[in-house]
Amino acid sequence: MPPVDIDATVIANARLSRDYSVLSLAAPEVGRRTRPGQFVMVKPAGVTDPLLRRPFSVFEVLRNAAGDVTGVSILNKRAGRSTKKLYELEVGDVVSCLGPLGVPFKPVGPPVEAWMVAGGVGLAPFATLAESLAAAKAPTTLFYGARTAEELFYLDFFEKLGIKLVLTTEDGGRGVKGRVTGPLEAALKGVGPAGAMVYACGPEPMLEAVAKLAARYNQRCEVSVERVMGCGLGGCYSCVLPVKPTFAKATVGGHGDGHANLVRSCISGPVFDGAELVWE
Fold first, then answer.
1. End-to-end C-alpha distance for the chain, whole angstroms
2. Which of 24, 90, 201, 209 is least enclosed, having the fewest CB within 10 Å?
């Protein structure tokens, strides 16, 4: 379904910490169209500094008690001017919202296992994916890494869906001390005969490591890249990334010199086959 461009009213802004919040928007038109892994372009209405909207994965598709879609939420980390303004919004404020945009994940079903790998704010696309996987009864594990235990969010949400949690923190405050790729590799060494589909979102060095681990153990992998986007519609070419030539030929707007081809992640992604990217 095509995206919609609306002014969405803030219905909640839950501050999870000093830097993280979940901003909920009354945007049923966006929510009804959203598939796991897609994103929206948002900014507070009327704001001209910064001028452009920013991309955020749809975190949740919101529903009322009757099950009707009422809107969407985004997971925001206060890191610059745009995210600071979003963090400070209150109920009743208005946000310009364009979406949903981009290529979604491809959810698997049993007996294939689903392994979601999130680094920090890379948790964002996995709430909707987790719901889809739970509905399909796919055995699912979330490998979730953060700097500290205080930056591990929404654990109850995933546990209620029956998803196994494997947690890591850089300071050892909870779960395994170290990076999330450590437990992932250990699990890949013992993957069952049906195999696993690995989904990843987070910093690009983490995505590269996850994609290469999945390839080493002959498992499929989809990664959601986090690139700066000016428009979200493919017009500004601010979000290009290199892919293998065979993949570029099959996508919209691929071009290059025959060695590393460039595609726009807003329309050819943000979800890509990890084996098709040329990691820089």
1. 33
2. 90
Distance CA 18, CA 154 (A): 16
Where along the chain do its domains lie?
A: 4-101, 105-226, 227-280
pLDDT for the residue 180: 97
Which pLDDT belongs to residue 117?
98
Strand residues in 83-224 grouped as ranges (E): 94-101, 113-119, 140-146, 164-169, 176-177, 196-201, 220-224
Report yes or no: 29 and 4 within 8 Å, Cβ to Cβ. yes
**CATH of segment(s) 105-226:** 3.40.50.80
Phi, psi of 198 (to 5 degrees): -100, 125
pLDDT at 118 over 70: yes
**Does residue 89 surpass a pLDDT of 50?**
yes
Is the pLDDT reported for residue 236 higher than 70? Answer: yes
Alpha carbons 32 and 68: distance in angstroms, whole number: 9
Q: Which amino acid is at 9?
A: T
Which candidate, 236, 232, 239, 203, places its Cα nearest to that of 56? 232
Give CA–CA dist 13/85, Å, rounded.
12
pLDDT for residue 249 is more than 60:
no
Q: What percent of the chain has pLDDT over 90?
A: 86
Q: How does DSSP classify residue 151? A: G
Helix (H) or strand (E) holding 20: strand 20-26
Which pLDDT band, with edges at 50, 70 and 90, does 250 fall under? low
C-alpha–C-alpha distance, residues 158 and 130, integer Å: 7
| Distance separating alpha carbons of residues 151 and 74, to the nearest angstrom | 16
- Look at residue 257 in the predicted model and tell me its pLDDT: 44
